[in-house]
TrEMBL record:
Keywords: Membrane, Transmembrane, Transmembrane helix
Family per similarity comment: Belongs to the autoinducer-2 exporter (AI-2E) (TC 2.A.86) family.
Protein name, as recorded: AI-2E family transporter
Keyword match Transmembrane: yes
Length: 356
């Protein structure tokens, strides 16, 4: 009996049974966990966004603090510069952007008719099997229905609109207090860490900062660069609504690997309603932007500090998107990078304890 309990097979069986029991318990309490998750997501989302903003701006605030500028004054100065920059952009870019949105809205029925005509032409093309045509038609109808339902639900839900506006207003205030009291927060955290563990904790936080710092700030800069390049490319090829289409490219480019493909979709769909030649030109512009990002801009700006395999990043993005939608896609890779550093330090600590 002792030999059985000490064997590796017995240990594996016990672990497998415990894992199955844990999975069964999770399935039983899934409704409760879903409710808790929805509550935490709603409450913590503005804090996470504010922490990212504070993390991006903290190096500038710290630099000003080292120059004998009070930290509160430094934060207010950064906010003033940010508001002034936004005002300049708003005055110069917003009229053009709003005009393109208004013009696009006026042409939506015409574009919809063109898209429907293309779909009908495809469905009537007898060179494709009927089952394939019906399957594609069902898929397109399903996508259209989902988009329409989501938009109708959002516009009809006044509470959701008010909640989004409230979050947009509260995030800058949260980021301000996090930036102002960053050192106080650090001291408070270290106060609850045992003295003999503080050096290791400090080293771990420094590694997390190195892993995330260049990635977050660099990814934002890369997205802006790609948006500008896409705008120039769309202007050259004569693409309608170039600023609006380039905005989508820059917005989705924040998401690594998958983002450029999502960002190119609006321009490609728009181009296909114009002509196949325009669709080809748009594909060439986006491919050129992706090539420049991968081989020139991203290595120079972001660097290869993440040390994460692309397959791992794609898997992490899929999990993040499934758990938290767009927010999950944006936060998945930084969260994974931070947790990777934490797990490495915990594993090293465990190994040290075993060898002592």
């Amino acid at each position: 009996m002792n030999r059985l309990t000490q064997s590796r097979l017995f240990a594996v069986l016990v672990l497998a049974i415990l894992a199955l029991l844990a999975l069964y318990m999770l399935i039983l309490v899934r409704p409760l966990l879903a409710a808790v998750y929805d509550f935490l997501k709603a409450v913590l989302a503005p804090f996470l966004v504010a922490m990212i903003i504070a993390y991006v701006l903290n190096p500038v605030v710290s630099l000003l603090s080292e120059r004998k500028v009070p930290r509160t004054a430094a934060v207010l100065l950064i906010y003033a510069i940010f508001v002034f920059s936004c005002a300049v952009i708003f005055v110069n870019v917003t009229p053009m952007f709003a005009g393109q949105v208004r013009e696009l809205n006026e042409h939506v029925p015409e574009l919809t008719m063109k898209a429907q005509s293309m779909i009908d032409h495809f469905n009537n093309n007898e060179s494709f099997p009927e089952s394939v045509r019906k399957g594609i038609d069902r898929a397109i109808s399903g996508v259209e229905k989902k988009i329409a339902d989501r938009m109708a639900a959002f516009t009809n839900n006044i509470g959701a609109v008010i909640n989004v506006l409230f979050l947009a207003m509260i995030v800058p205030f949260l980021a301000f207090y996090i930036l102002k009291d960053m050192q106080v927060i650090e001291r408070t955290v270290f106060r609850y860490v045992p003295r003999d563990k503080r050096q290791g904790m400090s080293r771990m936080l420094k590694e997390i900062d190195e892993a995330l710092g260049s990635y977050i700030r660099g990814q934002l800069l890369v997205s802006v660069c790609i948006g500008v390049l896409a705008y120039i490319g769309y202007l050259i090829i004569g693409m309608p609504y170039p600023l609006l289409m380039a905005f989508f490219v820059a917005l989705f480019d924040i998401i690594p690997y998958l983002g450029p493909y999502f960002g190119a979709l609006p321009a490609l769909v728009m181009a296909m309603t114009i002509s196949w030649k325009m669709a080809l030109l748009v594909a060439i512009v986006n491919t050129a932007c992706q090539f420049l990002e991968s081989n020139v801009i991203s290595p120079q700006v972001v660097g290869r500090t993440m040390h994460v395999h692309p397959l791992t990043i794609i898997f992490v993005l899929l999990v993040g998107g499934e758990l938290a939608g767009i927010v999950g896609l944006l936060l998945a890779v930084p969260f994974y990078a931070a947790m990777k550093v934490v797990v490495q330090h915990l594993f090293a600590y465990y190994v040290r304890r075993k060898t002592v």
